[in-house]
Design a protein that fits this description.
Shape: rod-shaped
Strand content: under 5%
Mean pLDDT: 82
Order of helices and strands: HHH
Distance between the termini: 97 Å
Helix content: over 70%
Structural class: mainly alpha
Length: 136
Amino acid sequence: MDRTVIAYVIYLVVSIGLTVWVARTLSRNGRVFLADVLHGNERLADAVNHLLVVGFYLVNLGFVALYLSGDDTIEDTRGVFEALSTKLGVVLLVLGVMHLGNVYVLNRIRRRGVLEREQLPPVGPQEWIAPPTAGA
C-alpha cells in the first residue's frame, strides 16, 4: 500500500474521531446552557442542541473531506508524520475555533435570557393608578 494512502487513512480516522468527540462534548454540555436559556423547556433545548450538533458535524466533516487531498506524494515514513502533523494540526485548530464559536454563541444566548429574566418585576403590580388629568 502506498504511504500516501496510509497517511490519508490515518488522517481520516483521527480527524473523524476528534470531530465526533468534540461534537459529543458540545452536545452534552451545551444542553445545560440551552435548558437554562429556554426556561427549562427540555424538548426545545434538545431540538436546538441537536440542530447545533448536526451543523457542527457538517462544517467540520466537510472541512476534513476538503482538506484530505495533498499536493505531494509521500516518499518515506518521515513524510507520513510531517503530512499528518500538518493536516491534523489544521483540523484541530478548526475544531477549536468551531468549539469556541459554539461556546460563545451559547453564552450570548444564555446571557440574553438572564437579562430578560432580570427585567421582569419580582412581584406583579398590586393596583392601577390613573394618570393625572390635565386640569388638576
